[in-house]
Amino acid sequence: MSAIAGKRLFLAAAVAVLSLAIAGCGQSENQGAYDTPLFDGGVMYIAGVDGYLRAVDTDARTGGGEDRSWAQPVQQGPDTSPLPLVGGPALHDDPQAPMVFVGSEDGNLYAYDAEFGGNPLWTFPSGDKIWSTPALQDGLAYFGSHDHNVYAVNLVDGTEEWRFATGGAVAGKPLLFQDMVVVGSFDKKLYALEAETGAKRWELQGDNWFWAGAVANDSTIFAPNMDGKVYAVDRQGGLLWTYDLGSAIVSRPALVSDILVVAAKNGRQLTLLSTDPGAGDADRMIDSEFVTNSEVKAPLFVNGNTVYVGTQDSAVVRLDIFFDRARPNLEKTWCWDTKSNSSCQD
Amino acid sequence: MLLLACAAFSLAFAACTDTAGLGDTSSGWSPVAAVAIPVDTGVTVDQARNVEPLDTTVTVTDITRFDPGQVIQIGDERMRITATREQQLVVVRGVDGTGPQAHPGQAPILSISGDRSQPGRFTVFVATKQGGILALQDDGLGDPSAEWNLPQDRGDR
Questions:
Q1: How many CB atoms lie within 10 A of CB A4?
Q2: A305 to chain B: which residues are within 8 Å by CB?
Q3: Which of A27, A76, A228, A307 stands the most exposed, by the fewest C-beta atoms within 10 Å?
Q4: Considering the entire predicted model, what is its pTM?
């Protein structure tokens, strides 16, 4: 074999391997989900990594009756492949015309009939991937896109009401706070926009990306950042306090009473923070508890005083907050390995 | 040329394993949701004391079943108990995404989050990294038990 033929053969082999590798991207184990399922009337809506939006009738799984489940590939047309759904679904619970909305990595926001799925009722194109879970209020869907914009779109027909340009991708779920939409951007800023017009009220500079969505109580916004800090901000954009967890925060935090529950990405600790603006640095951290040796990226889920954490090593951990002592305390109740369907081996 | 091919392959491999810049992207993040299974406390709102939406206390038939911090449910409304006194619960109204409502006397009171001996009960749903949806029954007293596991299907109804 000549040197030239050898090089051609090698090049062909390299191209073949490359092609296989690229082809494998779309066919690898695109499973699971990123964001939290939501429930309505015994039906769970979940946006899958495989690009499918599903309605799962959980009542029918246990109680029989008509199965209202459906599964819909979220795609622009029959000749396209569905791309991963990173953001979760949002439900417009109108009894006359319930609708479910989800953004796709293909850059579109899709609206579906929540009862039957089927073809999209409408699609709204943004300029890049959508990872943001929409937030709904007063007939509008608010969401961010990798095209750097925050959008407000009419729920009924998908027409654009306004857009606001940030300096980076907007990946988190917008927070609806009083008459504002609060969103974080990969430009390291937190923005407060007028919900009605999209006009900027204020912005706050962080040290890294604002990825996970913020949460709020009546008076304060709590915004996690990839710099490892939680930023507590008042409605005028004034920084009240920060608390550094020492590891990037991807997981959307939650509130239990007047306590902020937050997980750092390194998964070591679930931490309870006092939301009292008057608390000093020493009193800010109420309690913390070991969660897992794996990372935590999924949003926290709170019901009552119970916190559930999904981890990157396929475990689910339940922790409970108890109020029977001088300070609330956090205890790990169980850990369940979803791969083996058995208790975790800590 | 070898370097070029290796670089191209590395890029392709990186793209496969981290297509969205999300880290371990191919199998999601194991998000969880849980639906409460309310526990009947056997206690009701006092017969003569209807609860109005702006009230911050609830008079009950047996105060001994409640503790500060506990989350209760009356009708569709959840409340958090901040204190107990005589036969009254001092509450924060409309918590956990619910709103204040009016409740008649004798309305049953359910417990969502109890104490260590009677913790909250839930059905837990996990979107597993194996691609299914796992339902767990969770009484909070020990490990949960698997109720069902639904493999993903792609069939429309």
A1: 8
A2: 69-71, 113, 120
A3: A27
A4: 0.88
